[in-house]
Write a structure and sequence with these properties.
Radius of gyration: 17 Å
Strand order of the largest sheet: 2-1-3
Largest sheet: 3 strands, parallel
Structural class: alpha/beta
Number of strands: 3
Helix content: 40-55%
């Protein structure tokens, strides 16, 4: 029976009838406090059956956690040169200096 239940879950997932389940996201401080919360909120509205946990830490910790499969996705501002991680640019950002 357990194998049939697992087969049904896989079939539902492949047919888009099942949610993403639990998702662990890591983000650096700025992304975690300003962007990730908005993105996760939007994702949760589209997929209310899913559970998302956000881990806010520094870049080195996020890279380590992704490399060791402790989190599913990392959103970082710094560089990542880990040989086992595929990095994709997500958003271009610029720094602006201003004064009064």
């Amino acid at each position: 029976v357990a194998l049939l239940d697992q087969a049904k879950e896989i079939e539902d997932l492949l047919n888009g009838k099942s949610g993403f389940g639990s998702l662990a996201v890591g983000a650096t401080l700025t992304i975690g406090n300003y962007l990730a919360t908005l993105l996760i909120g939007s994702f949760m509205q589209q997929h209310p059956e899913s559970q998302v946990k956000l881990h806010v830490q520094n870049t080195a910790n996020i890279v380590h956690q992704v490399a060791h499969y402790e989190i599913d996705l990392g959103l970082i501002e710094g560089d990542c040169s880990h040989p086992d991680i595929e990095v994709q640019t997500w958003v271009e950002d610029e720094l602006v200096v201003f004064c009064a």
